[in-house]
Amino acid sequence: MKTLAYPLLLVAAAAALAGCGGGDPAPAAPSSSGAAVPAAAAAAASTAPGVPCGDVTGAAGAKTAVVAHGQVDCAAAAKLLTDYFAKLTPAEAASADGPGPVAIGEWTCGSAANDPVTACSTEDGRQVEGTRS
């Protein structure tokens, strides 16, 4: 599952480096004067990191808890994991290296061997996790 770890490491490194700015002051907080919130900011606020999104049926019928991180709504997160589990072949599910990576649109999903967590990510930093119970 080394190929899925690489994009996740890049996201973590980028987030860590984002705090190392060149000394410019932080942007001013938006005023509460009633101005409209930009659509991107509203979308970001709709699903905060680590939002539990219920359960889906995972590989071999296992109950899998869905968690969305970043700008991912719960319906999209649940559909993504449902599509991932449906797309897995029996050989991929039984792989000694773990299932995946499997591409589903702009997402890459997979997990390590015998790992109860399935991780999906995009290049722009969105993430969805499914934890088998």
Written description of the protein model:
- Helices cover 32% and strands 24% of the residues.
- With 133 residues, it is α+β, with helices and mostly antiparallel strands.
- The longest helix is centred in the N-terminal third of the chain and has 17 residues, at 2-18.
- 25% of the residues are buried.
- Mean pLDDT is 73; it is low at 1-47.
Helix and strand topology:
Elements: H1 2-18, H2 39-46, E1 51-57, E2 63-69, H3 74-87, H4 90-93, E3 102-104, E4 107-110, E5 117-121, E6 127-132
Antiparallel strand pairs: 1-2, 2-6, 3-4, 4-5, 5-6
Computed structural class: alpha+beta
Helical coverage, percent range: 25-40%
Q: Tell me about the biggest sheet? A: 6 strands, antiparallel
Low-confidence stretches: 1-47
Please tally the helical runs, counting DSSP H or I stretches of 4 or more residues: 4
Let me know the number of strands: 6
* Gyration radius, in Å: 17 Å
Q: Give average pLDDT, whole number.
A: 73
Fraction of residues in β-strands: 15-25%
Succession of helices and strands: HHEEHHEEEE
Shape: globular
Strand order of the largest sheet: 1-2-6-5-4-3
How far is the first residue's CA from the last residue's CA? 21 Å
